[in-house]
Amino acid sequence: MTARADLPLPSCPRVAGIHAAAASHEWMPVPSTGMTEEGVPFDTLLVDCRAATMVAGGVAYGAIEAAAVGIRDGRIAWIGPEADLPDDAASAHTDVQRLGGRWVTPGLIDCHTHLVFAGDRVGEFEARLNGATYQEIAAAGGGILSTVRATRAASLDQLIESAADRLESLKRDGVTTVEIKSGYGLDRETELKMLRAARALEGRGVRVTTTYLGLHALPPAFAGRADAYVDHVIADILPAVVAERLADAVDAYVEPIAFTPEQAERFFAAAAEHGLPAKLHAEQFSDSGGARLATRIRALSADHLEYADEAAVVAMAEAGVAAVLLPGAYVALRETRPPPVDALRRHAVAMAVATDCNPGTSPLTSLLAAMNLGCALWRLTPEEALAGTTRAAAQALGLAADRGTLEAGKRADLAVWDVSTPAELSYWLGRSRLWRRYLGGVVS
Ligand code: NIG
Ligand code: FE
What we know:
Oligomer: single chain
Radius of gyration: 22 Å
Strand content: 15-25%
Bound molecules: N-(iminomethyl)-L-glutamic acid, fe (iii) ion
Distance between the termini: 20 Å
C-alpha cells in the first residue's frame, strides 16, 4: 500500500458537499487528506452504524446518525453520513462491514497507568482500612518501595506477562492506546527493564506510549540525599533511557513525601534537552506547586489535581496543559476532596480520565469504570467522561493530531459498542458493552 496523503483532493461534487456541510457545523468531521479519489476505493468500509466522533464544537458527542467510515492504509479516509458516501467509495476489493446500527467511538485511550509492576499491595489495602494512611505506610518503607523490591526481583518476562494480563482487561473495555510509566525500579537496570516490558506489550493488540517516571520515590540507597538522586537520574539513567529510545515522555511525583518542584524542574529541563515532554503527578495530597510547574514548563499534563486551586487551573488553561483525573486513586484512598472540575470546565482545560492502574493507590483495570466513577463522584457528564478517554486523553499524550477523535487522517483505532447511546458507556459499573475493537482498521 502506498501513502495517499500526497494525492490531490477529489473533484467529486458529493465530496465537495461534504466539505460544505462540515464547514456549517451540521456535523464536524472534516475529511482533509486521502479522501476517496476516482478509482481508489477504501480498503474497508463500515456502514449501518452510528458514530460518536468526539469532535468538539458541534452536536453532542460529535454524533453522526446513519454513519459510514471509510478506512485506507490503517487510517480513517472518510467519515460522514452514509447517504453522502462518494460513488467510488467501494470496489470489489473493499471489505464492506455492516455494524447493525451499533455505536462507533474512537478507541479508548488510558493515558495514565503504572501497568508494569510485580507483586501486589493487598496487605496495605487492609492496613489502610484499619486506619493507617498512605503517607504513614510510605514513611515506614512500604508503599512504592515495597513494589520496588518486588519489581527489582522480577524477570523481564514476568513483568511482561503480569502486565499483559491487566492489559487484556483494558482491551475488553475498548482501549486501543495505553500509556505505561516506569518508576518502580529507581535504579538504572530496573527502570530500563520496566520500560522494555512496556515496549514489548506493543505487540499485544494495543498501542503503547511509555513514560520514564524518573522521580517517583527516593530509593533507600539515597536516603536523605534527594538532590544527589536527581543528579544520578539525570546523569546515569535518563541518558540510558534515551539511548534505547525507551520513553516517549517523562514524569515526576511532586509531593512532600516525594520530590520538590525544584527537583522535578531540574529533571524536566534535562529531559527537554533530549526532546522528551513532561507529565506530572501534581497536587494529589497537597498544594505543592506541581500544577504551576507544569504550566511553567508547558508540560503535556498535570495529573490528580485534587488540591489544585483556581489560579493553577487558569494557568493550565493559558499554557494548554491537560488535566488528567484519576478517580481510582481517589476511591481507593477514600479521599474526600474532589479535583476542581467546575473550574477546569469553566476555563476549558482538557479533562482526561484514566485508570492510574497501580498496585498501591489504584488497583483499577477498567477504564469504563473510571468513567463511571468520574461521573458518580465528580459529576462529569457522560460526554465529558468519554471525551476524557478519547480526545482529551490523546491531548494529554501529545497525540491529538493522530488519534482521539474520528476524523479523516487519524488512525482507524475504533471501538464498536452494543449501547443505545454513548452515555451508556459511563452508566454501567463493571460491565463492558464492547462488541468489537479495530486497531489500524483491522479487527483486533
Ligand atoms: O499515581 N505517585 C504516585 N504514584 C501512584 C501511586 C504509586 C504507588 O503507590 O505504588 C499514583 O497514585
Ligand atoms: Fe500515577
